[in-house]
Amino acid sequence: MGGRPLPVPDLHDVISSARVVSIPMRVKFRGVLEREALLVEGPVGWGEFCPFLEYDDVESAPWLACALEAAWHGFPAPVRTSIPVNATVPAVEPGRVEMVLTRFGRVGAVKIKVAERGQSLADDVARVAEVRRLLPDAGIKLDANGGWSTDEALAAVDAMARFDLQYVEQPVADIPGLRTVRLEVQRRGYGVLVAADESVRRQEDPLLVAREDAADLLVIKAPPLGGVRRALEIIAQAGLPAVVSSALDTSVGIRAGVALAAALPELPYACGLATVSLMAGDVTQSSLMPDAGSLPVRDVAVSRTRLERFAAAPERTRWWLERLRRTHAVLSGVRMGS
Ligand SMILES: O=C(O)CCC(=O)C1=CC=C[C@@H](O)[C@@H]1C(=O)O
Ligand SMILES: [Mg+2]
């Protein structure tokens, strides 16, 4: 698809600068309490390779392409200087919502995790109600990570539309289900939109959801799509509004998301790029954290001291370097951006 593939640097050059970090989370997020990432330094800066641990090498290959783009090629020209961002509230109990929100400072929008395994609709309603109570004017979006059936998704929208929701992200797992939920929510007249996330980033064809008219907007993460340039192409071809979101990365990975959001011709919603606020550390002294609801579009200077402080245990470092070797082999076979 699209533009000229970027050359993949030699494994030796990639591995020689690789550093593995393990950063504790302040709040458990998607089951993760320690976020591990491998950072590489190339001729133009640092890149972050942090596919989730359960991903295989083929699924991880575009994540490496994204890291190598950042470190060896840099980013396309920005069209804006700051990016509006949302706070992200994990599936915590209502009593912890205020503490989580405090970490983000003043924001104009909040994304709330719902449909967590082991929790009920009543738990979701209580969490969303608490956010609405604390922030009466904020834009609210929900993210179910595909955790509902279509009936459950419709019941959830019935129960929570009164909180004035902007959109529900990936209410159900599959594309036909997403389309059903989208059309039925539209028919019920709630004015709540349906966004696709996993149906773009974990789908062999990231454009299928758009072709099937199954979503009103796309939530886009640069790493699973193979980097900023490739993500820009996919968004342009999809022809739908896009919200750029993080992969729960350090400020180095967030920088790629910021570059993507900065290069998009339109940016109608706050982006999910404030997640460094959920972490208890970073690899830079000047983290990409929100100030008055926005992130600046700027580079990130990596601190050697912090790479040391958060260095992963030797066996985890070995595991990541092996993963890097295997993924590099996959990527060299398919070429970046192809
Ligand atoms: O979009 C946001 O507000 C923050 C990022 C975020 O929610 C996610 C980051 C990484 C993994 C995902 O489970 C999750 C998501 O599903 O969007
Ligand atoms: Mg999501």
From TrEMBL:
Cofactor(s), by name: a divalent metal cation
Active site: K113, K221
Top EC class of this enzyme: lyase
Binding site for Mg(2+): D143, E169, D197
SUPFAM superfamilies, sorted: Enolase C-terminal domain-like
GO biological process, one term: menaquinone biosynthetic process
Spans traversing the lipid bilayer: none
Superkingdom field: Bacteria
GO molecular function, one term: O-succinylbenzoate synthase activity
Limits of the Mandelate racemase/muconate lactonizing enzyme C-terminal domain: 96-188
Keyword terms: Lyase, Magnesium, Menaquinone biosynthesis, Metal-binding
Pfam annotation, one family: Enolase_like_N
Annotated family: Belongs to the mandelate racemase/muconate lactonizing enzyme family. MenC type 1 subfamily.
Stated role: Converts 2-succinyl-6-hydroxy-2,4-cyclohexadiene-1-carboxylate (SHCHC) to 2-succinylbenzoate (OSB).
Protein name: o-succinylbenzoate synthase
Source taxonomy: Bacteria, Bacillati, Actinomycetota, Actinomycetes, Micrococcales
Gene for this chain: menC
